[in-house]
Amino acid sequence: MAIPIAYNLRNLVVRKTTTLMTALGIGLTVAVLVADLALVNGLKQAFQSTGQPLDVLVLRKGGTAELSSAMSRTVYQELKTNPGIARDSAGQPMASLEMVAVISLAGIDSSQVMSIAVRGVDPIGRQLRDIHVVDGRWFQPGRREVVVGRSVASRYPEAHLGRQIRFGKGLWTVVGVMDAGQSAFNSEIWGDLNQITSDFNRQDTASSVLLRAADAAAVPALINSLNDDRRLNVTAMREQTYYDNQTNAGAPLQILGIFVSIIMAVGSSFAAMNTMFAAVSRRATEIGTLRVLGFSRFSILTSFFFESLLLAGIGGVLGCLLALPLNGMTTAVGNFTTFSEIAFHFRVTPGVMMPGVIFALVLGAAGGLLPARSAARKEILSALREG
Amino acid sequence: MKYLPLILKNSLRNRKRTSLTVASIAVSFCLLGFLLAMYRVLFFGNDPTPAQALRLFTHHRVSLSQPMPASYEAKIASVPGVKAVTVWQWFGGVYKDARDPKNFFMRMAAEPDKVFSIFSELQIPEDQKLAFQHDRTGCIAAKALVDRLGWKLGQHITIAGDIFPVNLELTLDGIFDTPDHVEMLVFNHAYLRESLPPSIRDIVSAYLVQAQAPEDVPRVARAIDTMFENSPAPTKSETERAFQLSFVSFLGNLKLFLMALCGAVTFTILLVSGNTLSMAVRERVREIGILKTLGFTSGAILGIILGEAGMVAVTGGTIGCALAAGMCGMLRRSVVGVQYLKVLHLTPGIVAITLAVALVIGIVSALLPGARAARTPIVSSLRYTG
């Protein structure tokens, strides 16, 4: 026969200070884990929503990053003739030659200078992405004008609408702010391809080409035909794959966060064990009475074990609540593929809170087993006498 | 102090509880010490060696990826207080397979005749040094790197270019030792220059400048940056350490992240310690009443409880520091490729901070239960049945 759950609940309520303190300790551990997972989750989201399923990114043979890739205009002209590429309403192949470079801007607390990616595109480049101008207007081809991503505009005073940024061979006017949904383009500055290549002395070689396949079935064939073409000497991949690979930008923070939360968990489970041992010794008479009433040793064991889980569960929920205010907060990490910064939002989703609560329960189980066993082992007479 | 035996006896009364509390606190302090050590390495760096203190890193103000003209070298060399200048060109490239992080190390192009004066801390046999200086396609590498990749003197090393459209075929002429364990390979800039097409041959993305004396460094940095202020490629000159720190900011807002973690850990310790102590005090209400009838003042009672808390916390802190030192040592030895972890140490300063935090936490956590016990009137504590 099982001891009613209400018994455990009431016990937790009676010792509310101890319960709260222990649960809060576990909660902090869980909050660290949940915050860390939410960070990685947000970063993943940013990269995953950057690539379009039909788009193929072409880099120099063996290239792994746009920044270190080189793509000549001659190769671009060759590429465009591939029959697998979709055509726009004017019958032109949807292929965008782009140039990516990195510049530095001073952040809001101007002591730190951060690296921001600059992308030179032709009109087709914008057509291939889901980008809206939210403030100002799009840059005009042939002018020294740029449009900045939403997070760049909000994080860097230098890049406010109407201001001028200095890079390449001189000043550029910020004429617009673009919104690219959750994607990585919010952390970029876009300008005219010809203007930007000439500022960086790379008129003949830009960085990469973005292609749109005619349909989903054509994507693998397009990638294969480009990779196999020895004349072109390029590497093609799904745009989504390219951005998925960049999720590792969050790896240092992720590893640190998980490492810290595991060590904190060891400490918290000792604390939980302490609380449960205290509960067992305080309730020795009760345990004896329960045994006299006919509850088995096993019922006592499960009851105390369950109480520990309950305590940890409260901690887990508290931890999620503590981490919840982070949801939607903007932060940024350096991206080693682009050597520039990517801004994104913390995302505290159920998928992130779930592991947090499970983590708390595991911790409670580790802390509760020994005390529950010692409660179950008590002899009736000595337990009754102990109190 | 005369209560010390009593404090000791009290804390050993419930051994299971005391040891669990000490264990819990020790683990948390181990983490705190480790996080502080990380913080120190990332945001303060190790103290610069005398050779390091003389070095300045000059790059394009806008970005490392933007080049400067080769003509800057002679101009920088003419600045008063400058002892030597070398091109210090980052060559990205791929060694074997870029997907394996083991194959990542710094590959720098520099001028062989200047490298050894600017990096005076490099230890290299004289014959190997000469061999490198007379071999256009030669290179030297750090001992740690050579050991890790199993290279031997005379080894042929191929590095495929990515930023630069050339493949380097290098010969390992020398192996050097440095105190800071940097895993880098240095090769002849002349070789890189000759292999490049004329249009990009004469551009350099960084110079390394050696000042004559440490006190000249700030003045030299200012003089260089002022000289190029209005040119098409304005520069930024900073010390090696400042440059490394700017690289850390690239990892994201680590400072805030680490501080938040330290805060969470400290608060957890406070909770654990406070909780244990309130449990202990609650059990001893009667006993405290008896102590009072025996003539112990409220202040003495408070002192005994504070002493017990402080002792438990400091014991935990000490064990924690020992654990943290072990952890730092383990990371130093086992982690490959992360330069910051190679210099991770639990310095005496950090140990002092951790122990101070332990003492403060112990006392703060005891204040509430201690004050309650001290304040309870004798009669009600004697009547209490816990």
Features:
heterodimer, A: 387 residues, alpha+beta, 2 domains, 10-stranded mixed sheet, two-stranded antiparallel ribbon, 13 helices, 14 strands, 49% helix, 21% strand, elongated, B: 386 residues, 7-stranded mixed sheet, 4-stranded antiparallel sheet, 17 helices
Fold blueprint:
The complex is a heterodimer of chains A (387) and B (386).
Chain A: H1 5-14, H2 16-48, E1 55-60, E2 71-72, H3 73-80, E3 95-106, E4 113-121, H4 123-127, E5 132-136, E6 145-149, H5 150-155, E7 164-167, E8 170-179, E9 188-192, H6 193-199, E10 205-206, E11 208-212, H7 218-228, E12 234-238, H8 239-245, H9 251-282, H10 284-292, H11 297-323, E13 330-335, E14 340-345, H12 350-377, H13 380-386
Parallel strand pairs in A: 4-9, 6-8
Antiparallel strand pairs in A: 1-11, 1-12, 2-10, 3-4, 3-11, 5-8, 6-9, 7-8, 13-14
Chain B: H1 4-13, H2 15-43, H3 50-53, E1 55-60, E2 68-69, H4 72-77, E3 82-87, E4 89-90, E5 94-95, E6 106-110, H5 112-118, H6 126-133, E7 138-142, H7 143-149, E8 156-160, E9 167-176, E10 184-188, H8 189-195, H9 198-201, E11 203-204, E12 206-211, H10 217-227, E13 235-239, H11 240-248, H12 254-283, H13 285-293, H14 298-334, H15 339-342, H16 348-375, H17 378-383
Parallel strand pairs in B: 6-10, 7-9
Antiparallel strand pairs in B: 1-12, 1-13, 2-11, 3-12, 4-6, 5-8, 7-10, 8-9
Distance between the termini of chain A: 25 Å
Name the helicity range of chain B.
Answer: 55-70%
| Major sheet summary line of chain A | 10 strands, mixed
Poorly predicted runs of 5 or more residues of chain A: none
What's the shape of chain A?
A: elongated
* Radius of gyration based on Cα positions of chain A: 30 Å
Describe it:
The complex is a heterodimer of chains A (387) and B (386). Chain A folds into 2 domains: 5-48 and 248-386, no CATH class; 62-232, no CATH class. In chain A, 49% of the residues lie in helices and 21% in strands. Chain A has 13 helices and 14 strands. In chain A, the strands form 3 sheets. In chain A, strands 1, 3, 4, 5, 6, 7, 8, 9, 11 and 12 form a 10-stranded mixed β-sheet that branches. In chain A, strands 2-10 form a two-stranded antiparallel ribbon. In chain A, strands 13-14 form a two-stranded antiparallel sheet. Chain A starts with a helix and ends with a helix. Chain B is α+β, with helices and mostly antiparallel strands and 386 residues long. Chain B has 2 domains: 4-46 and 252-383, no CATH class; 62-233, no CATH class. In chain B, a hairpin with a 6-residue loop joins strand 8 and strand 9 (167-176). The longest helix of chain B has 37 residues, at 298-334. Classes of the chains: A alpha+beta (387), B alpha+beta (386). Chains A and B meet through helix 2, strand 3, strand 4, helix 9 and strand 13 of A and helix 2 and helix 12 of B.
